[in-house]
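Workshop exercise sheet. Pairs work together: one partner reads the sequence aloud, the other fills in the structure field after running the prediction. Swap roles for the next sheet.
Pair: D.N. / O.F.
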Amino acid sequence: MDINRVIKEVSKYISFGQPVSSGSVFNQRISDPRIAMQAYYMSMKLRSEEEHYYHEIWLKKDGTFAITEAWYHGSTVSRKLYRDNVAFDDIVQTFGDEEANAVLVRMTEIIKKSEREDWSSSRKRA
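Structure field:
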């Protein structure tokens, strides 16, 4: 499967935003501090259960990935950019095949669901 084609295709269906760097997980406000990137959440990997510390994978609008460090405490999160402009091959090397495949599956599921919704809505208009 051509990862660049999948990234290009999924980018047509998702809305990129600026991840909150500190704030509520559920009730984000416009005033919450943000990480300066346009990205879409893809996956997270637990790094330290004691510290509630995770690495999160984000697809950026430019087609590369970013990795954030995240600390979850109750319903709040604190994030900071860990690695930027990461290629999919680097995701494989950093997180392993299983996690990289989970990101790929998530993207293909978004594409399939979006195409079904596009098809069904265009069918209703006909």
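Discussion prompt: The chain has three helices and five strands. What would you look at next?
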